[in-house]
Amino acid sequence: MRTRGRCRYSLARRDSFGIHPLARLYHYVGFTAALPSFIALTPEGPYCTPGGFHIDPWRAVDRAVITHAHSDHAVRGCRLYLASRACAPLLRARLGRDISVQSLDYGQRVGVGDVTVSLHPAGHVLGSAQVRIEYRGHVIVFSGDYKLAHDPTADGFEPVRCNTFITESTFGLPVFRWEPAELVFERINSWWLRNREEGRTSVLFAYSLGKSQRVLCGLDPSIGPIGVHGAVVGMNEVYAAAGVVLPNVLHAGETNASELRGRGMVVTPVASGASPWLRRFNGPDGLSLASVSGWMLIRGARRRQALDRGFALSDHADWDGLNRAIKESRAERIGVTHGQTEVMTRWLREQGVDAFVVPTRYTGETTAAEDQEYPEGTQEPGSTPEPINTIPNTGLTQTGEQKP
User: Is there a contact between 162 and 331 (Cβ–Cβ < 8 Å)?
Assistant: First the structure.
């Protein structure tokens, strides 16, 4: 029957993520066809059907396997979370102390329904993990976010052999090639020293989880006092409890602002840049603002954010790192998600790799996603979640050491 009036799927129509319905249908079909049959894409995100869990869901679900604690991978409201042992305290700190979390050591294998799940170091931040799922001889690995560069605050990335590898692509363009972190920190410390000599307070914008701790390990405390935003203080406490050695810092505020003015370094989330909180640290010659992010490699990024300096340091793999990780996985099929998906997929296909795009509601590293403040998590009164490795009417399959 002919439909009169406006076209139902007009080119101007978009969904809440700005994606046209027909494009969404194409991606969903492509995703389903490209991945092994036991992985499905749902409105909540990737779902392991025989395991009964989502991987880094986009919305609250019953059971979620989490790669790391950044907010674009760990959403509030899930009934039960499974994460690495080092990630669990970070999830509680960000999502609420009363959430239900089951943790695994790296490499520990656990039966979840009819699949075997294990977590392996991703090198992104403390506790970050790649999720390995094995079902009937097929192994798929969801990388989450990762980097191959050395980082004293996170376990190093370990390649995991698999049949299908789902890789992020935040910096999946040839222009993104990182310098050694040591050179970046030399420039950061030189900038701080010059600011101190000229009476300016140095302010460095960095994610409260992961980037701030990595930056703190690279700062030279002999230059002056270091202050951090309250959001960073909370994450530092979790890192310290995990055995990560960080320099002594001040919880930056009114009571110690005079110690920082004109000589100190303040590490803070970017969201604080427009707040009155930052003004209390003005030195005799004001503030000098800088950001540490992979995006600082792009011309104009610093100018658009009204920064005095920009330092290109990322907790994501660069172009060479992505290609190396893909090669070392020895996977027959590569799914590309979170970032420069089309470019990376096209490049891989040109190299003879069977690659496909995995749609997501996120695009990779942003300036706000990881620094949201979370109210305390909630759980239905009286409810006691069953362990994620217990499926009704099926036996528990446990391989490897059982942990409490």
Answer: yes
Q: Which of 62, 206, 60, 87 is nearest to 144 (CA)?
A: 87
Comparing CA positions, the residue from 328, 340, 336, 330 lying closest to residue 365 is: 340
Residues 69, 103 contacting (CB under 8 angstroms): no
- pLDDT at residue number 306: 87
Q: How far apart are CA 105 and CA 119, in angstroms?
A: 7
Judged by phi (left if over 0) then psi (alpha if -120 to 50, else beta), residue 299 lies in: beta
Integer CA distances (angstroms), 337 to 97, 244, 271, 357, 359, in order: 30, 30, 26, 6, 6
Determine how many CB atoms are found less than 10 A away from the CB of residue 179: 13
Residue of 285, 273, 272, 325 lying closest to 143 (CA atoms): 325
Two tokens at 126? 């403390």
pLDDT digits (tens, 9 = 90+) for 124-160: 999 999 999 999 999 999 999 999 999 999 999 999 9
Q: How many CB atoms lie within 10 A of CB 336?
A: 26
Q: Which of 181, 185, 287 is nearest to 227 (CA)?
A: 287
**Entry pTM:** 0.83
Q: Is 234 helix (H, G, I), strand (E, B) or coil?
A: helix
d(CA 267, CA 316): 20
In 49-104, at which residue ranges do the beta strands (DSSP E only) sit? 53-55, 63-65, 80-84, 101-104
Q: Is the dihedral of CA 209, 250, 247, 261 positive or negative?
A: positive
Low pLDDT (below 50) residues in the chain: 1-33, 367-404
